[in-house]
């Protein structure tokens, strides 16, 4: 889903529901010389009481088509009592360009209110695209559907056998497109598999899809699956189709289920037509997707650790230009960052004991360089009492250590990872905040450490375990 954020409501507003927007376009401008346009749609939202537009998300790019049906959805919080303005910009993506925001790649735009889409007949709105002088830019089609509370995730794998041959010099390059049915008899695209090249007997990779996307919680809702032969120019050849439902798919978990792929046009023309091949469901499994709130209500404790940069590049703490500088009137930049994050996380930690480390400093009395020294100077117990305790230990360290270098992250990441690895039952979740100013000196080791600690560990009942450690990016 393309949903990096939510529409900004007025203070105190409570969303009535979550709405999923599906986007399609028709008759777009063709900007490519030797092929068709490669469109993408960018959604912008306007904050409540503001004239500023902020990017909310993007669809995927679809190559070589003027009539795209985008799989990636936009999920928005819908507030009945507010006017929520949306802007859809359509661009042709040039792979040679670093940015899509180029005037020559602009295909048009449309302004709508979310309420317009929801209030339109069957939640379906068509709006002309404008913005390219002297050109008819085509139309954008928006479909709104209220999302159910279903949080199950499906993983399935399919293969096919004896599909129709569509390529003159080869076999076929098949892929599947999944659609869920709508009340008016239309269908909404919800998934595409990868293309398997030059075969009539493809085996597609397993894929995962939310049940909400597949049928929105209605287990008997028709799911239509089309089989296509991929063509480079975007004019994919239709091989055939079959229909099923989530309930039917779920019943086939313990056995292979075979579907006949039928092409209605061929069936009408050929009396002896049987099918255009078969598709077999190889595997189907369901897991529940637990939210952050589910884990917290289930007793998961958040453990907050902070690591602060004590390298010389920060400047002398006595100088106003230093990030460690604390004036008589306000905290230092590092202290402000620490409070901003820590005061939120501490509400989810029952003991309020936070390990705190420094890195990149020479320590007294021998001037040894350390990249994981406890701010409270207690190697056996680096925990400080509350955020105020962390701040107190941080200020004390500034008065005793010598800022030096280099800027190494890996030692402190591995230090905290060692603690996190001691509990793997999902009851503990560790967050490491690294506050720094400069370039990472041990980039390779840091990448390896983050990859290692971010892998799921242990076993959480009914679902995958959470990551044992989340490393917040440096501020």
From TrEMBL:
GO cellular component term, pick one: plasma membrane
This protein's UniProt keywords: Calcium, Differentiation, Metal-binding, Repeat
Query: Cross-referenced PROSITE patterns, in alphabetical order?
Result: C2
Q: Which SUPFAM superfamilies match?
A: C2 domain (Calcium/lipid-binding domain, CaLB), vWA-like
Gene Ontology MF: a single term: calcium-dependent phospholipid binding
Q: Which CDD domains match?
A: C2A_Copine, C2B_Copine
**Mind telling me which Pfam families this protein's record contains?**
C2 (PF00168), Copine (PF07002)
Domain annotation C2: ranges: 1-127, 136-259
- Family matches, as SMART domains: C2 (SM00239)
Q: Which GO terms describe its biological process?
A: cell differentiation; cellular response to calcium ion
- What is known about what this protein does? Probable calcium-dependent phospholipid-binding protein that may play a role in calcium-mediated intracellular processes. Plays a role in dendrite formation by melanocytes.
- State what protein this is by name: Copine-9
């Amino acid at each position: 889903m393309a949903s990096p954020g939510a529409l900004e409501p007025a203070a105190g507003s409570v969303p009535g529901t979550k709405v999923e927007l599906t986007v399609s376009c028709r008759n777009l401008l063709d900007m490519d010389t030797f092929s068709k346009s490669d469109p993408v749609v960018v959604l912008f939202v306007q904050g409540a009481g503001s004239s500023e537009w902020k990017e909310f998300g993007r669809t995927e790019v679809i190559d070589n088509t003027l009539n795209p049906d985008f799989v990636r959805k936009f999920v928005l919080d819908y507030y009945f009592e507010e006017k929520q303005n949306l802007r859809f910009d359509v661009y042709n993506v040039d792979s040679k360009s670093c940015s899509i925001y180029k005037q020559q790649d602009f295909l048009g735009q449309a302004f709508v209110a979310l309420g317009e889409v929801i209030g339109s007949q069957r939640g379906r709105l068509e709006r002309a695209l404008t913005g390219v002088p002297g050109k008819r830019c085509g139309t954008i089609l928006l479909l709104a559907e209220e999302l159910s509370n279903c949080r199950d995730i499906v993983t399935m794998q399919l293969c096919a056998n004896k599909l129709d041959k569509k390529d003159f010099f080869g076999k076929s390059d098949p892929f599947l497109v999944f659609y869920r049915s709508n009340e008016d008899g239309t269908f909404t695209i919800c998934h595409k598999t990868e293309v398997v090249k030059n075969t009539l007997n493809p085996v597609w990779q397993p894929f995962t899809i939310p049940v909400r996307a597949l049928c929105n919680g209605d287990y008997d809702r028709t799911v239509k699956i089309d089989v296509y032969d991929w063509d480079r120019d975007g004019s994919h050849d239709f091989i055939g189709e079959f229909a099923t439902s989530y309930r039917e798919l779920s019943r086939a978990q313990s056995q292979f289920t075979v579907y006949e792929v039928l092409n209605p046009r061929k069936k009408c023309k050929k009396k002896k037509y049987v099918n255009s091949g078969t598709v077999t469901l190889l595997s189907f499994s369901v897991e529940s997707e637990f939210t952050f709130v589910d884990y917290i209500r289930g007793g998961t404790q958040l453990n907050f650790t902070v690591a602060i940069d004590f390298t010389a590049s920060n400047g002398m703490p006595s100088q106003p230009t230093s990030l460690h500088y604390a004036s008589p009137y306000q905290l230092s930049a590092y202290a402000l960052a620490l409070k901003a994050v820590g005061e939120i996380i501490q509400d989810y930690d029952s003991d309020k004991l936070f390990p705190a480390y420094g890195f990149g400093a020479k320590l007294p009395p021998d001037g040894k360089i350390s990249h994981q020294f406890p701010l409270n100077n207690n190697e056996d117990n680096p925990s400080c009492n509350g955020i105020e305790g962390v701040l107190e230990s941080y200020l004390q360290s500034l008065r005793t250590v010598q800022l030096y270098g280099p800027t190494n992250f890996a030692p402190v990441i591995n230090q905290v990872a060692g603690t996190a690895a001691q509990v793997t039952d999902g009851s503990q979740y560790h967050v490491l905040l690294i506050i720094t100013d400069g370039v990472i000196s041990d980039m390779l080791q840091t990448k390896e450490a983050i990859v290692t600690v971010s892998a799921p560990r242990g076993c959480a009942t009914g679902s995958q375990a959470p990551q044992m450690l989340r490393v917040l990016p440096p501020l």
